[in-house]
Design brief:
The chain has three helices and no strands. The chain has 130 residues and is mainly α. The chain is elongated. It comes from Mariniflexile aquimaris.
Amino acid sequence: MDKGYEKERFEMLGIKVSVAKRFRKFSKKLSKSQSMTLLLMLDFFEENGISPNENIGPNMQTLESKIKKRIDAVIAIIKDIEKHHDKPTTAMLQSLFMEFEPKEKKLLLEKEPQKNKVQFEEKRNSDNQL
């Protein structure tokens, strides 16, 4: 039985034989009872505001085009924010940091003494005296 509808009684509907056969096949595909299948169909049409007389194709296409337009609008807003807010702010911050960067000073490095070379030499007289 259908959950929540066990105590309800059945009602007869006047349906053509070909339509009833088709509906029974559809119910078996969904693995639902005929009552629950019909209830699901009614809920679907009511929730989505779709009439069975309308073709869903154009509705889906218009919905898709509306979504694409909104996405394009969001992209345009983000690009505008980047252009007018982020880039100028970033440029100002970079210019501030450039002003306060210390200038690089050249370091005075002491040359290492070479091996086998005498750093200090004695001064020799012309008389060869030590």
